[in-house]
Amino acid sequence: MLKKQIVSFILVGIVNTIFGYSIYALFIYFGLNYVTAVLFATMVGILFNFKTIGKYVFNSNKNTLLLKFFLVYIVVFLLNIGIIKLLKPLGYSDYISGAFAIIPSAVLSFVLNKYYVFER
């Protein structure tokens, strides 16, 4: 079951990541700073991700879990900002820094969603 969830999470996560990173990059393109871009991309992505992760990874349609899911995304948001903030002084652009933040954020997201939001 765990292996199936991880594979499903990766596949759904690819779609969610493309969606979320596209929103982030679009906001950067329009001149927003990285904190605001991550914040808005996270806000836009929360509902989309809640439905896709809940349904396709954890077989849940419980809308009552949205608050827990939102709390997880606050933690993931803070990790994202922290990674970008660490990489910018090293000369990485907002685009590249945001891309580097994807994997650690995804791992944290899976663990918190599995054991906190969609626990059984």
Write up this protein:
It is built from five helices and no strands. The chain has 120 residues and is mainly α. The protein has one domain (2-117). Helix 1 (2-29) packs antiparallel against helix 4 (94-100) and helix 3 (66-87) crosses helix 4. It is elongated. The two termini are 13 Å apart.
Residues in helix, %? over 70%
SSE topology string: HHHHH
Strand percent estimate: under 5%
Gross geometry: elongated
Stretches where pLDDT is under 50 for at least 5 consecutive residues are none
Number of helix segments? 5
Judged by helices, strands and strand pairing, the structural class is mainly alpha
Total number of distinct structural domains: 1
Mean pLDDT: 92
Distance between the termini: 13 Å
| Sheet of most strands | none
Number of beta strands: 0
Q: What gyration radius follows from the Cα positions, in whole Å?
A: 14 Å
Give me a quick take on this structure.
This protein has helices spanning 2-29, 34-56, 66-87, 94-100, 102-117.
Fill in the keyword field for this structure:
5 helices, mainly alpha, 120 residues
Structural topology:
Blueprint lengths: L1 H28 L4 H23 L9 H22 L6 H7 L1 H16 L3
